[in-house]
Amino acid sequence: QEVTLKVHHFLPPGSTAHAKFITPWCDKINKESAGRLKCQIYPAMQLGGTPPQLIDQARDGIADIVWTLPGYSAGRFPAVEVFELPFMTKTAELSSRALWEYVTVNKLDQTEFKDIHPILFHVHDSGQLHLVKGPITQQSDFRGLKLRAPTRQTNKFLAALGATPVGMPVPQVSEALSKGVIDGAMLPWEVVPAVKAHELVKFHSEGDPKARALYTTAFVFAMNKAKYASLPADLKQVIDANGGAEASTWVGKVWDESAAAARKLASDRGNQFNVIPAAELKKWEKAGQHVYDSWVSEVSGKGYDGKALLKSAQDLIQKHDPI
Amino acid sequence: MSEPIATPVCAPQDPIGRSLFFLSRTFAAAGGLVLVAVSIMSVFSIASRALTGNAVLGDFELVQIGSAVAVAAFLPWGQMRGSHVFVDFFTTGLRPCMRARLDGLGALLLAICAGIVAWRMTIGTVDLRASSETSMLLGVPTWYAYMLMSPSFALLAATAFYTSSQKFREQPA
Amino acid sequence: MSGTAIGASFFVFLLVLLALRVPIAISMLITGVAGYVTMAGWDPLLGYLKTAAYGRYSIYDLSVVPLFLLMGSFASRGGLSKALFGAAESMIGHYRGGVAMAAVGACAGFGAICGSSLATAATMGQVALPELRRLNYSPALATATLAAGGTLGILIPPSVVLVIYAILAEQNIAKLFAAALIPGIIAALGYIAVIALHCRLNPDAGPAGERKSVALRIRALIDVWPVLAIFVVVIGGIYGGIFTPTEAASVGTIGAGVLAVAKGMRLDGLMESLYSTAEATAMIFLILLGADVLNVFLALTQMPAELASWVSGSGLPPLLVLFAIIVIYVFLGCVMDSLSMILLTIPIFFPVIMGLDFWGLDQSEKAIWFGILALMVVEVGLITPPVGMNVYIINSMAKNVPMSATFRGIVPFLMSDALRVVLLVFFPVLTLFLVRVIE
Ligand code: NA
Ligand code: NA
């Protein structure tokens, strides 16, 4: 029999996620199932709702497959948020593999992801600092800067470094940058062209590529449980073959590659780049220590062993994505 | 079609109609005050951002939650006041009692839809409470907003059902 | 049946419900629900309805809608509509047709702090109609002027319809507001020209009023400073990027509220403002919910996407497609209101327009340009027979003027609307100039 899967996500068709990950993924399962699995992709929330509601849409079968950020639903996926702490990952490719393994060995599919069938997990390329007025070379440069923080954890981290974190939705960022409402933003390269940040800022302060990233964000690509269960064994096999550790790694690599392309756009404009040395980053890590502590105590309050989870994540990243 | 300028308001005479009228007006007043509170908070946040560089923590979330709750609370009042846009071009030739029946049909359809939405939002409240989802910065549980919104849809269903029964009862003059 | 066929059948079903006086919001909701079940079954629908209302109503940018309505309500309680008309009349009232022109000017001024056409028509009607009557203006000119002038409430930013367009088309509200400003001013000037021409041809239609002394003029001008202050803060703040549209609307609402209290608004006045805002908001947000369900159903059928790819592959000249869309809007506008038209058609027309080339505009400029065009054309529906909301509102205040007389009086104003639309189609720079400046 033929099965058409409704795939729902929140970005426009031109985005990396749609064009370089979801569409090729769908083509691949179509081919490997000899045309029996088909996707109907609905970009830009066409099936209604808001991005934080995507998880529930996968659970309730409004969509068969969704791509989203667990972090949008704050408080709901505390264990996976460990990857959003500062200085965890290095490359999206290798750390995505670590993230998949972290979810598997800690059996998160039986706790916080028990209502959905995760196909793969990934992270984005390293978050960097994109600044209007001047570069950041040391911690004291943060003082007095208003910076857009993308997640709950980076919000705390920027405050710890001495900046004033400003929480705002992504579409607001370009407006805020161009009007000086914020002095810069913390973003991965992949997002930079979409919000035109490379045209609005002059300076890009990047962490030492040999050190851990300033931050990243975790993503999940997940399926409705009943829909997955309803597939015949050979089609389940096709989905399984395009999920798991290998597929997660592949998606991470897609992000790394799009980062390189976006970075080139900025350098073609003549923007200035500087690298924040690893020794300096070590100091920032100390300043942000309480961000780790508060994460550990938060997840411990929710019935997890926070310390063990943090260690598990760090060990797995070190194993797959060593420095 | 309603006009957004206040016109004199008369409450229905029967007891059910009167209680629905005053209940919906109370909802509207509560929603309106939430809206005013949200704007005062925004103004305060802008002022504090300008003076100290720090906005009110989670100001965007408060606006989102507050206006969602307020707007839902307005719906029953809109129904009691009959503020709907409709196309009356093709039915102007009909006898008034026929038109009243069509209006009754429209209100009945709304009562059914609003009833389903109220029911589903209540289920949604329970789901979200179980999943312990909160807002990003302030950690406000999302189910609070759902819990404050679903009574508005239940009241909307009740007022629409009431309007519908009134319309079907209308006799030719 | 293919998705497109199902989509088309349910569209017909929707039109039948509309023709049967079922309110637009409910027609959309019922059609959306029935279509959704047909395409995807009950379970996904029941799941979707758990979160649909919160998802739609918690959109940050949408919260400006009730705020702009409340701001307009406060502004009219604070006597700002009266002050605007007084100032305009003191300046040009002594010319032939001058008081009618002053009413258009005051509508434009009120439109600059109010997001709704109906509110503008109602407010300015209350203020200006008695004066036009006292001076023996031709009844049809008086009512037609105010009905047409009322559309400036939406044409001049801030504007509720533009906010909805911005959300549907995923465009920046501040840029759309900037884009609307020059076309809005052209609209006001066009209406003033119509009045001048009308009074030149029929000198009795618009008798001159009294000439006011310089001292009186200065006093009248001073009275409008709060309007200016609110406009500068709200629109200037949005254009300048100092705050988001929602924050700007909050500032404007609180400012207008404080002013109304200073002018004598008490608790009962505040509650009346809240009730009328609640009523107008309820109407809009019920339509929004209905449109949301309907649009999800349409997305499930893939009809909009297929229509768009059919049109862009058909080789039809883009301008022909655009004019066809405009004609459809004019016909829909005969019986529907502007907001419902935007909600009903943008999900279908927007992908079509984005797939075509117009004057080599890039995607984001094209989206803004088309948004302003659509806004202009749907607003015409407010003054076209048989159903013209603004005409109804003004006529309900001027009981002795037959509806048909007002609609006859509207014709020259409609001609100026048509001329303006043609102008904006062929000179996109009129729309995009300010957008490029603020960038
Ligand atoms: Na306006
Ligand atoms: Na009309």
TrEMBL record, chain B:
Occurrences of domain Tripartite ATP-independent periplasmic transporters DctQ component (ranges): 40-168
**Transmembrane annotation, as ranges:** 27-48, 105-123, 143-162
Which locations, inside or outside the cell, does it occupy?
Cell inner membrane; Cell membrane
Keyword Electron transport on entry: no
Q: Which Pfam families match?
A: DctQ
InterPro entries this protein is in? DctQ (IPR055348)
Q: What is its main location?
A: membrane
Keyword list (alphabetical) reads: Cell inner membrane, Cell membrane, Membrane, Transmembrane, Transmembrane helix, Transport
Q: How does it sit in the membrane?
A: Multi-pass membrane protein
Report the domain of life of the source organism: Bacteria
Similarity remark: Belongs to the TRAP transporter small permease family.
Tell me, how does this one assemble? Answer: The complex comprises the extracytoplasmic solute receptor protein and the two transmembrane proteins.
Function, as annotated: Part of the tripartite ATP-independent periplasmic (TRAP) transport system.
What's this protein's name? TRAP transporter small permease protein
Q: Which organism is it from?
A: Aromatoleum buckelii
Automatic annotation (TrEMBL), chain C:
Location comes to: Cell inner membrane
Indicate yes or no for the key word Transport: yes
Record's bilayer topology term: Multi-pass membrane protein
Where exactly are the transmembrane stretches of this chain?
A: 6-37, 57-75, 95-119, 140-167, 173-199, 220-242, 248-265, 277-301, 307-332, 339-361, 367-393, 418-438
All copies of the TRAP C4-dicarboxylate transport system permease DctM subunit domain together span 11-429
For whether the record's keyword set contains Transport, the answer is yes
Oligomeric form and interacting partners:
The complex comprises the extracytoplasmic solute receptor protein and the two transmembrane proteins.
Stated name of the protein? TRAP transporter large permease protein
